[in-house]
Design brief:
The chain is mainly alpha-helical and 717 residues long. It has 23 helices and 9 strands. The chain has a 3-stranded antiparallel beta sheet. Strands 1-2 form a two-stranded antiparallel sheet. Strand 3 and strand 4 form a beta hairpin.
Length: 717
Amino acid sequence: MNAEAKCPVMHGGNTTTSMANMGWWPESLNLEILSQHDRKTNPMGPDFDYREELKKLDVEALKADMHALMTDSQDWWPADWGHYGGLMIRMSWHAAGSYRIADGRGGGGTGNQRFAPLNSWPDNVSLDKARRLLWPIKKKYGNKVSWADLIVMAGTIAYESMGLKTFGFGFGREDIWHPELDIYWGAEKEWLGKDRYASADDETSLENPLAAVQMGLIYVNPEGVDGKPDPLKTAQAVRETFARMAMNDEETVALTAGGHTVGKCHGNGDASLLGPDPEGAPVEQQGFGWANPKGKGKGRDTVTSGIEGAWTTNPTVFDNGYFYLLFNYDWELKKSPAGANQWEPIAIKEEDKPVDVEDPSIRYNPIMTDADMAMVKDPVYRAISERFYNDPDYFREVFARAWFKLTHRDMGPKVRYFGPDVPAEDLIWQDPVPAGSTGYNVEAVKAKIAASGLSIADMVSTAWDSARTYRQSDMRGGANGARIRLTPQKDWEGNEPARLAMVLPVLEQIAAETGASMADVIVLAGNVAVEQATRAAGYDIAVPFSPGRGDATDEQTDADSFEPLEPIHDGFRNWQKKDYVVRPAELLLDRAQLMGLTAPEMTVLIGGLRALGANYGGSKHGVLTGREGSLTSDFFVNLTDMANSWHPVGGGVFEIRDRKTGAVKWTATEVDLTFGSNSILRAYAEVYAQDDNQEKFVKDFVAAWTKVMNADRFDAI
């Protein structure tokens, strides 16, 4: 018997190869996304409070150390021209730039660049070195600054170090402690594959929720669409991908120019010779990847994108050199030493050439990528570029604001920001909400709601629809602000506009009479309904409530940016806008994860909302009870009752029949039956179906309901 056979540990059992266990059942519902940030992976313990740690941080000392780092070149990875600014900006940018507005996932808010797959994306070559350069500072300040904050802050400090007056910076990003492997980055099976367009000729046909054009890229291919230089076609790709990251045309040009005003591309060698990425590298490399066997593998021998050269004459100074070179020279296609397509100027003056990163006596041509050429070839981008070129101060201001937006877009409301450099200005993309009143009589409001004549289903559905927009991915949406009464939310199909038009005026009158905000009254109405339903079920349990939500105005609402939050499905209310390729149960998991729910919380909410009759349009699918409006566990009791049988009847609908007589007792959807068919969800369902767990069901529902209603109460932190 060989040594491997004698080993008592299953071969591959502690590596990703063990995932093959579930490979036997490829269609099985994977609930791991609901355990994505289990506390068991967090070494800080349940009592750790990052915001309290931030209060101990000497921000000025940290900034001084960060500034010193920029020019304190390390022998093991020396800085280009003695300044790490370009590298640090790229690290921060590629962390924040993975954000996409469709589902709010990605971004720099969690420090996820430390883990796979992002730490090993082809577009992130050498950023392992940037993070390691930050380690002495992280080690020094410890728990008082997260990796997430440090990674994003590095780019802002780099810009300041190179002469830009930045717009500000906010701390407050909490670290995660394991990979977000359940984020969908694309279906491709190889790096830089491209299989995400419905039409190869239509850049807007990029698959949702994706924003980057290829697997392993942050934005677009710098050599051109599919690696083929064509600035006008590249402009289309740039416009689409930046829009999916919440940027307009002016912000896009500012970010492209400002990002390429400093630093350089690296392609002085054959990228195919680089060793494995960090996640696949051998242990002796200690987390480093992409080892270069040729030359020094650093300095002028660095290989990342394959394109080689700096964009500007002075790549360690934030100036207007980017536009100066673009507009004052003609550009032609060339090949880098690595064989990549890049644009170089014709007949450039010697003094306009940037110097070598190691030897200032040597000068090379500057370069432009296909995306850079798009800034002057696309007519809309060109007009913006011309304004920036002719008004450098305006360019600096727009870029500083766009950089701040890029690096803070996924942090949610401004109240979550921390530190002395948080700008005082309220920005529309921060979804501002004014403070609400806390001085009104809550019990008096509840009494008026109870006497209003609104049904339990109407009150529950309105409160749920207001709160369910919350996304923990970028902390947007939620009940605070009561934007369900504003455009576009009041007109969303999933919010039942006709029902809203009946319910909201009743609640608005109560708000006007009591001094409470509409946001509070909407949530209180849902709470009143839940309390009525608990009493009808034989229990007297108060639903916790905290006043103080505010009411946003139309002027405080960027209506266009809320379109991606429109629900196209909601398994909790047994509704989806149309049939999708993705199964209804998978859609339910996605929404539950965005709302920050665990699998048990998702389960109890489904059962409770069915009992409350909160289905979309009053549908009876899944309402497995004769006591609708009472908060009973009948959904679980009858779903697991073996006196019943289950039969598909088409259109995603099933009949639940009496096993003996064949009589139809109820109808249900795939979402409903999943809680009896999936082994994990059935285990939860059986808990609530037990005779001794009826009170537990009610208490667990109230707790989960309260969590949903309060998910966006950042004003209380």
